[in-house]
Design a protein that fits this description.
The protein is mainly α and 183 residues long. It contains 8 helices and 3 strands.
Length: 183
């Protein structure tokens, strides 16, 4: 699956790299044949992010060696910028940290925006190290857990949620990283 963003900020998806600006979103030939990807222009994605959070997201990302656009994409897909979000499985806050993960990365209050962002960013940085900066595996591990990725032979686990999550975050990341004001 490939994505490129045109001069109007509109994403274009295809199963072939039909434009020199296209980037690969999905490389696993055994992955889903059809996936849901974001279709909103980048301006719509930017409107989701509360303006007061942008400097904190930027600083947190940079201090953890991450691109702010990646943090924004994860937050957008995980919680749609709702700091009080709680998943049915118990993940909490902007970056939807599970209680064990929150503790592991020093988060005492998962609903505290600053703590949640820092914990989530440290977790992403740790996953980047564990999975050699393979962003597909990093995102799969963020969603399904590190052990799920390892048990599946360092491939994206065959869970529908994870199979949809990875390209959704990658699509938003591709759109957001093209915005100079973010990075």
């Amino acid at each position: 699956m490939y994505l490129y963003v045109d001069e109007n900020g509109v994403p274009h998806y295809s199963n072939i790299a039909s434009d020199p600006r296209a980037i690969a979103l999905w490389r696993d030939p055994e992955g889903p044949k059809s996936i849901e990807l974001p279709t909103a222009p980048v301006t719509t994605l930017l409107k989701q992010a509360p303006a007061e959070l942008l400097p904190l997201i930027h600083d947190t990302a940079k201090s953890n060696g991450l691109e702010p656009a990646l943090l924004m994409a994860v937050i957008s897909v995980e919680s749609r910028y709702n700091p009080k979000a709680v998943s049915p499985k118990g993940a909490k806050g902007l970056m939807q940290l599970m209680p064990d993960t929150a503790r592991r990365f020093g988060v005492e209050d998962a609903f505290d925006v600053r703590q949640n962002l820092h914990g989530g960013a440290r977790y992403l940085r740790d996953l980047m190290r564990r999975f050699n900066n393979n962003l597909e595996l990093v995102l799969a591990a963020y969603n399904a857990g590190e052990q799920s990725v390892i048990r599946n032979g360092h491939k994206i686990p065959p869970y529908k949620e994870t199979q949809n999550y990875v390209p959704a975050v990658l699509g938003q990341f591709a759109l957001l990283r093209g915005v100079p004001a973010i990075n």
